[in-house]
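Incident review: delayed structure delivery

Summary: a single-chain prediction request sat in the queue longer than the usual turnaround. Root cause was a stuck worker, restarted by the on-call engineer. No data loss occurred. The affected request and its eventual output are reproduced below so the record is complete for anyone auditing the incident later.

Affected input:
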Amino acid sequence: MRIPSPIPKKHARIEIIPLIDIMFFLLASFMMVSLSQTHMKGIRVNLPSPSSAPTDPTKKDYVAIRVTEGNLIYFDNAPMNDDQVLPRLYELFKQNPETKVSISAEQQALHGDVIRLLDRVRSSGLTKIGYQIKTAQATGAPGTIPPP
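Output delivered after worker restart:
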């Protein structure tokens, strides 16, 4: 014969809430460890110091050159003869080798004239060259496609 125990028998249960707490603790611990192992790297920037000398306002670091129809060349809207272009470029290079040159051409200027000017700028030693480009106007000129 079986005698029942006076202590009630309980079945084992798995509690989920402490398991979730432990998992969040482990997740937070791993995140903190991985962040502490990451070395933040940035770009070094040389900021100007207040003791640096101001730049000379008379020293020009930009020149705009425009080529028009008939190989007319303008330096900052001042007309210049074709034989004076290269000496002027050498003079700009001697004043400041970092002078920026912006080349633009009118629509009727010949491609060869613009390339010849570009070759002169490069041969003078100036290396910072930019181009001003405008979209074709929708005037219906032959060979042009209107912008979308």
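Verification: The radius of gyration is 37 Å.
Action items: add queue-age alerting; document worker restart procedure.
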